Amino acid sequence: MRVQQILPRPKKNYPWNYRIDFGDTKLGKIWMEIQPWSKQMEVPGVWTGSVFYTNQQGATMCVLRWS
Predict the structure, then answer these.
(1) What are the average pLDDT values for consecutive 10-residue runs of the chain, which has 67 residues?
(2) What angle do CA 6, 8, 11 make, to 5 degrees?
(3) Distance (Å, rounded) from C-alpha 31 to C-alpha 19?
(4) Backbone angles phi, psi at 23, to 5 degrees
(5) Are 54 and 43 within 8 A, CB to CB?
(6) 43 in Cβ contact with 1 (< 8 Å)
């Protein structure tokens, strides 16, 4: 899992300023565990393949849970 801040702060039209790349994680774990967890916990953000775009709070939650 790699976390990267892609914008210094969120913008109105694009509120996701953190990129979390789960590329080194098995796809089964992403689809069966991580994605459902993010929806259940209502972590704000969008998924693009194995990459999750979120805000600082969402990134913190993911790091605490999945690192």
Answers:
(1) 94 94 91 96 96 97 95
(2) 90
(3) 17
(4) -60, -25
(5) yes
(6) no
How far apart CA 15 and CA 29 sit, in angstroms, is 26
Structural domain tally of the chain? 1
pLDDT value at position 32?
94
**What is the distance between the alpha carbons of residues 38 and 32, in angstroms, rounded to a whole number?**
11
Q: Within 10 Å of residue 10's Cβ, how many Cβ atoms?
A: 14
pTM: 0.92
Instruction: In whole angstroms, give the CA distance from residue 23 to residue 36.
Output: 17
- State the residue range of the domain holding 40: 2-66
